[in-house]
Structure formats: structure tokens, C-alpha cells
Amino acid sequence: MSVVSAPGKMILLGEHAVVFGKPAIAMGIDLRLTCTVRKGRQNTVNGQPLSERHHTYVAAAIRDHWPGGPLDITIDSEFPSGSGLGSSAALTVALLGAMSQMGGGIDEESVARAAFDVESTVQGRASPLDTSVSSHGQGIFVDSAPGKDLLWHIRRDSRQWYVHHCPVPDLTFVVGFTGIRAPTGPLVAKVKRYVDRTRFAKEVVDEIGDITVEGAKRLRDRDVVALGGLMTRDHNLLAILGVSSPELQRLVDAAIPFSYGAKLTGAGGGGSMIALTDRPEKVAGAIARRGGVPYIVRTGVDGVRVEDILH
Ligand code: PMV
């Protein structure tokens, strides 16, 4: 038996602009998903027979990355799926980690590569942001060129990403889930149309890139005041690109009076926002009063991790 966990994630800065080759910063959070894997008589997930249709990530991981016999898999998550916190990546990473552990041991980079492969197979077009940060933990800085602290380089079709380690202090954030699931694909396509058509949108994307580079420095210095200011500026630019929503804006506005800064995180259109704060209870209360689901989270967490091994 092997018990392996992996963290959820949030994108601190750079979503959408990363699609145009700009950098992005993602961080692991202290909400984890755990997979318990045993050899079984048939493939099962939480006691039910494996369904290709319902358990798409598990089915792809077994089909493409598990040479052994049937597996009995139990999934236990501290955070909901569909909230923009990277639950599919955490599931894929924890499961592939448990499989590697049964085969001898976990290598973070191999798990990150295999998990990106599974997400790409299931989703059609994915970026390795979620799977890389869930494997590595802490923070990652993804760029279109190599730099200091390079972890791995991932290539797919004509696209490529250089994934770097980004040191992350222990900070408190409040995540506010709007309760709305918004698929990433159409939002990415909408921004692309805007950028292809106007010079103005291209300049907004460039500015998000500059903010992200500056944010990585502020993060290293633990300058929460400057970092929060950059987050709010980034949010405003994302709103100009058309990926905020009335629900997200309501939660960002509710958080800002008690925060260093706040912004939507991930693709937008729904999903979640984040606020950097030293008054998490106040922010969580304000988010709940505006109809959001708050999660107080901490950063600076481990990536894929063995919890238990039994023979
Ligand atoms: O919705 P999420 O958390 O997977 O984030 C999407 C991030 C985008 O930059 C909008 C798209 C991408 O592939 O990087």
C-alpha cells in the first residue's frame, strides 16, 4: 500500500499573459489531496469500479503510466474540485506519486512530466503550471526562457515552458470561491482574440509580464505591501482583458479593505479570487457575506509527499 499527497495551488501573478510567453508565478497551498493505493482484484476508485467516463484522470494515468495489475484507489481531498485550486492536477500528481512509490520511489520531475502528459491527454490543451507546482510545492516561476533555479523544461507541440523554483515565504492568503465553474478554454480564446485584434490588449499583456517579474522580486524580499499592490494592479489589468466577472469583482472589492491586495486567480470568469492579508478572519467574513466560500490558506508547502508505506 502507498499513501501519497499533493497540494492544491493558486496562481499569484501572470495568468493569461503566460499563454503569450510571459512569466507566471504559482504557489502550492496547504490544502492537500491524498491518494491511498493498494493492489486490488479490479481497478476501483473510492470503492466503485473505475469508470473511463467519470474517473478520466485516474483512467488515463493507469492506462498510460501503470504497467502493473489492478489498483484499489481511495481519494481524500481537503478542497473541492472545480474551484480553480488545481484539484485535477493534485489528484493526478498524488496518484502518479503513489504508483512511483510502489515501483521503488518518487522523483518529483518524473511525476511532474507524467502528470502534465495525463492532463494534456484528458483536457486536450493544458499548461504545465498546475501539475508542476503540485509536484514541486513551494512556488514556481514559469517563463519562456531558462534562468536561475531551473527545475525542468517541458515541450509539447510547438509550445515550451521553463519551470523554475521560486522561493516562497510562509504567507497567509484567503481564497474566495465564487461557486461558479468557468472552463478555462473559452476565456483563453477570448483573450487571444482581443490580443490579436488590438495593440492595446497586447500592451496590457506586456504590463502583466512586467508586474510578474517585479512580483517575483517582492516575494523573495517578503515585501507584502508591494506584492499586494502588484496583485491588485494585475487584477485590474485582467479585468480590462475581460476575464473578471461581477461575482469575482464583488469578492475582490470585499477583501481589499482588509488586505495588502487581491485579485482573481486562474482563468477567471468565475472560479476563485485570492487576497494577501494579515487579517484572514476579517477577509474570510467579508467574502462569506458577499456569497463567496472562503478558505484561509498558507503557502510555502511541500510538493508531492509520501504519507505512509505499508507492505
Ligand atoms: O484555471 P487555471 O487555474 O488552470 O489557470 C489557467 C491559467 C491560464 O493562464 C488562464 C491558462 C494557462 O494554460 O496557463
Overall residue-averaged pLDDT value: 95
Largest sheet: 9 strands, mixed
Q: Helicity level, as a percent range?
A: 25-40%
Distance between the termini: 6 Å
Topology as a string of helices (H) and strands (E): EEEEHEHHHEEEEHHHHEEHEE
Commentary on this structure:
The protein has 9 helices and 13 strands. It is an alpha+beta fold. The longest helix has 23 residues, at 199-221. The relative contact order is 0.19. 40% of the residues lie in helices and 28% in strands. Helix 1 packs across helix 3 (108-123). The radius of gyration is 19 Å and the shape is globular. (3R)-3-hydroxy-3-methyl-5-(phosphonooxy)pentanoic acid is lined by residues 11, 15-16, 18-19, 84, 127, 129-130, 184, 188, 266-267. The site of (3R)-3-hydroxy-3-methyl-5-(phosphonooxy)pentanoic acid has 13 residues, from helix 4 and helix 5.
In short:
Helices cover 40% and strands 28% of the residues. It contains 9 helices and 13 strands. Strands 1, 2, 3, 4, 5, 6, 7, 8 and 13 form a 9-stranded mixed beta sheet that branches. A 4-stranded antiparallel beta sheet has the order 10-11-9-12.
Secondary structure topology:
Elements: E1 2-13, E2 24-39, E3 44-45, E4 48-49, H1 56-65, E5 71-77, H2 87-102, H3 108-123, H4 129-136, E6 139-143, E7 150-156, E8 159-166, E9 172-177, H5 184-197, H6 199-221, H7 224-240, H8 246-255, E10 261-265, E11 272-276, H9 280-289, E12 293-298, E13 305-309
Parallel strand pairs: 3-5
Antiparallel strand pairs: 1-2, 1-13, 2-5, 2-6, 3-4, 6-8, 7-8, 9-11, 9-12, 10-11
Helix pairs in contact: 1-2, 1-3, 2-3, 2-4, 3-4, 5-6, 6-7, 8-9
The chain binds (3R)-3-hydroxy-3-methyl-5-(phosphonooxy)pentanoic acid.
